[in-house]
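Researcher: Please predict.
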Amino acid sequence: MRCFWLLLLAFPALAQSERPNVLFIAVDDMRAELGCYGSSIVSSPHIDALAERGTLFERAYCQQAVCNPSRASLLTGLRPETLDIWNLATHFRERRPDVVTLPQHFMRNGYHAEGIGKIFHNWRQDDWRGDAASWSVPAVMHYAAHGQDQAEVEGDVPPNETSTPKCEIRDVPDEAYFDGRVAKLAVDALGRLSRQDKPFFLAVGFWKPHSQFNAPKRYWDRYDRQEIKRAANPFPPRFVPEIALHDAREMLRSFRDRAFGRPTPAEEIELRHGYYAAISYVDAQVGKVVDELDRLGLAEDTIIVFWSDHGYHLGEHGLWAKTSNFELDARVPLIVAAPGSPANRRSRSLVELLDLYPTLADLAGLPSPDHLEGESLRPILKDPRATVKPAAFTWHPRPAYPSEQDPLEAIGYSMRTDRFRYTEWRSAKDGAVIARELYDHQDDPDETINRADDARYREDAARLATALEQARPAAPQTGDAW
């Protein structure tokens, strides 16, 4: 063994060549509703197949259910509270200019790091290059607004077959939209990277199923509209504090001319149909990339990670899109397939997206930077019954999108344990508790009744409050993160 390590020190190129590649696949706004997660309606054969190659995490959670803080946390290995970021506009380097990001860490350890599509948040003013310090070559297709994802084809664009806001049904090829082009660029990159001498960290970020729901028509056609139902729990939880809810502006601002400013029942079903079609569309693009990895003979030497930045509501609790601390927003799909790790495993261990940075460093044999706040999931990859933490933490501000006109008023700190979700809403001024929530996932997995003031849960609430107080990071230190 001593000779082996001396050999690696003497021939660093050999050490690099024996390190695994990383294929890091991100999706946007995808909740844990896939075939491999038990859905009887969603068609996701390629992601399901990927789950069979590795470990599927049934209880993985984001650190904030909105793009920028979630991605900044995962990619820096720091909680949003530590970064002091809770909105869309603040670039993490404004807070931590010298932090070493996940791809940057691999690049510093001899990897070629390349980003295609949406990996970091698509800042509109702060960084047009997708955080250039993180990549060996400039990122591509990383900057755009979701509303700019309009069908592009040669000749006339086929007509839109629906009039429902946020939906679009056009008979166009996959590459008419962003994700088809992201997949093509990723396939081309794999071919190029397969011919180089150093290992690679290839990050591929798909934009779907984020609205608008404009997957090509063939993906809509996979579903029978008659089989799609409205949300089973369309009302806010009983006894829920108002601060836990939000105005769902990302979706509902497009329905201001409807009665009560909300989609009609038929439109609700079409929105769900569109969301599922978008999942199937991005699933096909994931399949193209993984198939190319297989075709090139790289799979046995590549760690594959699949993750979403946060979950999503489709009318449940009366909410649409994200920006809450409820389970549907906080829980995310997460799959890790690593060379040498058992295949076709499922784990109910509590994990966080924050854990991906130390996990990938561990699996690749790289040192972990001292600043990381997550835990390596390698023990769970070996034994899905293993645990690395007793709880997962998510937070969210109120208002949901703070701004200079709508300043930060409160933060909701949410803790998910094996049985409970416990949330405290605290004043941004003095940290005082404004409201509390307690949901018993043993009896109420849909979080329909807030038990925080239920006498039968008094001891549970007190115990969870103590645990949250001990674990809760400090409140934001600045008020200028607009």
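Model: Confidence is low (pLDDT under 50) at residues 1-14, 478-482.
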